Amino acid sequence: MLWRSAPLLLAFAVLFWAGNSVVGRALAGQAPPIALSWCRWAAAFVLVTPLAWRHLRRDLPELRRRWRIVLALSATGVASFGTLLYIGLQSTTALNSLVMQAAIPPLILLFAWAGLKERVSRLQIVAVAVSLLGVLVVLSRGRPWDLLHLGLNAGDGVIVVAVILYALYSLVLRRRPAVHPLSLIWATFAVTLMLLAPLCLFEAASGQVLRLTPRVIGGIAYVAIFPSFLSYLFFNRGVELIGPARGTQFLHLQPVFGAILAVVLLGEAFHLFHAVGLALIGAGIVLAARQPPTPQPPAARTEASPSR
Asked: Global pTM?
């Protein structure tokens, strides 16, 4: 039943991704962020290997030939985004991180115009400006003029960098190797583990040691199984059933689900500036959607999600 219902599959996928920020915030101060990220991808790597194995024999030569792209994907969208998200959540709220992540689609549009010279209409430029204004409202807690003398919360600043890197990842993904999606995700997970390993050692040497308490083990299990593995399977199956154009619209539910989870599970307060920021980002997304995007292969549009 679930495997044949696109709305349920896509809703669950986005719900699990929203839960990633909530769990990251819940483990702040209990699990070192780099170690948490490494354990997440290590467990996800173990889970995806049996599914990817039968495709890898055919795809490994192409993955080796395009190793620079694989490295770029791993560095920007998997290793950096996930790790910076957990670092930022040490000192900011899950709500803030989720609202700012909603600005990724407009940023992709902006970078495609600036870096790839894609045609962008005036309406789309307005859409990007409106969405970025929404991010500014959240960063400043509804008082943008205060940023001039109070500065930026460190955690929020780290989340902004993570969001920018994920938007860049989505553009690099357009040059992905012509391999099976499972082979690509297996390769990016493997490279990510190698990139994060020395950082984990440095983190441990600085005194931030991962202690496997029941709470930490449960958190690692969640982020490895649900947002890293099941969300990927569910999202791609849902897109397969109803197509990428309709399927990717479900991603806009992430801040909604995340806000509910953060308020209910973490007791975070939903302020007016969250509502205003979310409304502005949502308005930007709606305005951008009124202009048909530049066509791209379905695989490129659906593959951008597994690293959240």
From this structure: 0.83
